Each structure stands twice: as C-alpha cells, then as structure tokens.
Amino acid sequence: MNSRVSIIMGSASDMGVMEAAAKILDEFEIPFDISALSAHRTPDQVADFAKNAYAKGVRVIIAGAGGAAHLPGVVAAMTPLPVIGVPVKSANSLDGWDSLLSIAQMPAGIPVATVAVDGAQNAGILAVQILAVGDKALFDKLVAFKEKLKEKVKKANEELQSKGNFRLRVK
Fold first, then answer.
1. Gap between the Cα atoms of 116 and 158, Å rounded
2. Which residue range is the domain that position 98 belongs to?
C-alpha cells in the first residue's frame, strides 16, 4: 500500500524525535514512509521528493529539522500538499528556538503548520486529523483517541483527589 504520510527529517539524528510521529501513524494504521533529506546537502533529492509526493499517494508531509530548519519550508514551496513542520532541538540549535522561528515564519502563500519544539507526536496527530476530514472510519478512530485522552486525565485527577486534600504551605 502506498504511504499516505511521509515523515522526512534533515538528518538521521532527528529520528529520536520524529519516531513519535511514526508511533501515532502506526496506532492509527496509516501507511507512512521515513526519509532523511537535507534542504542544504541534498537539494535535488528534496525537490524530487516534494514534486512527486502527491503522485506517489502521499497526502500529508511531516518535516522535522533543527538549526536553520529550512526543510519544511523548502518542501512547502514545492508541493501543494499540507506540510507540518517539527522544529528539532539539535546539537547546532539555540534550544530549538531558531528552528521554531525558521519554520513558523513562512512568507505569505507558503504555509507550514508548525508544532512545538520536538513535538513530533502532535505532528502525527495533526496528520491524522487532516486525513480524517475525508475518511469517516479514521475520523471515528480519532474521536475514540481523544476520548481516551479525556479518560486518562479524569483517572489521574481521581487518583490525585483520593490521596487527600493537599494545601500549599507557605512559611
């Protein structure tokens, strides 16, 4: 089956962050592929990927990058597909802020949906939400996923409350 989502990253060292998106896509049984592509070191491969992704069945691209983080924007400039940028806190980044701003500050007409620094899990969820708009079965799975999140918080609150009343003690 063709991949519906492509996860790309500027370096294989970003996989530790980007695997969170893969886990979400696995959970929702969405076919995906993963590649390391560099906007700076392999620009021809990036262009080929971006220009041909739709024809290969891809409907959403998740692009993670650290440092100057050009990969999501370059890909968004070359494809009409939705691109979700994941700023990666890398060895050469300024705590991820440079990556976040590089991805979020796109020029008019070239949007990149941007999640938090190292927020690949939310990128995966956003990809699912985009695909679910036209897929009722996937939409229903997403609703159930969100319900589980609510239940998890309710359960945590009940456990906290069962431990007794805690008061802030100020000296």
1. 29
2. 5-137
